[in-house]
From TrEMBL:
Domain named RRM: residues: 57-134
Record key words, sorted: RNA-binding
InterPro entries per record: Nucleotide-bd_a/b_plait_sf, RBD_domain_sf, RRM_dom, RRT5_SRSF_SR
Low complexity bias locations: 10-32
Protein's organism: Gloeophyllum trabeum (strain ATCC 11539 / FP-39264 / Madison 617)
Keyword Transit peptide: no
GO molecular function: mRNA binding
Pfam families xref list: RRM_1 (PF00076)
High-level lineage: Eukaryota, Fungi, Dikarya, Basidiomycota, Agaricomycotina
Protein name per the record: RNA-binding domain-containing protein
GO annotation, cellular component aspect: cytoplasm; nucleus; ribonucleoprotein complex
Region (Disordered) location: 1-34
Length: 134
């Protein structure tokens, strides 16, 4: 039989209750709503940085196949970049009018989409893609 020795790999645990001393700092208080508002204003103010330019760009897509829906259009244009929105114009009978718009995240994505899809043959139709006139 082996000898029984106390385990010294871990120091014994003991319960410690917080006792305030003269040198310990006072407990922190929660910030007020005014403090939180001031922090939010400071963080969101643009005085220290240049305002971001909105580079979203909308394209007109003409000569769409009549069975195409907005999801099909969005899936196609994802090959060119980040698509924020795609719409197909519908008539009163809920059928496609043959054109739509695609909103891309940047002007670079829009330029790439024009290069890729203007004159592109899609489901027997040749697409017309250009910047949308607002």
């Amino acid at each position: 039989m082996g000898s029984l020795r106390p385990d010294t790999s871990h120091p014994p645990s003991r319960s410690v209750s917080p006792v305030p001393s003269a040198t310990s700092p006072a407990p922190a208080t929660l910030p007020s709503n005014d403090d939180i508002e001031a922090i939010i204003q400071l963080a969101t103010s643009s005085s220290s940085s240049v305002p971001q330019k909105d580079t979203r760009t909308q394209l007109f897509v003409g000569n769409l196949p009549y069975r195409v829906r907005w999801q099909d259009l969005k899936d196609l244009f994802r090959k060119a970049g980040t698509v924020l929105r795609a719409d197909v114009s519908l008539g009163p009978d809920n059928r496609s009018r043959g054109y739509g718009t695609v909103l891309l995240a940047s002007a670079e994505d829009a330029g790439r989409a024009i290069d890729m899809f203007n004159g592109y043959s899609w489901q027997t139709r040749v697409l017309e893609v250009r910047l949308d006139r607002l």
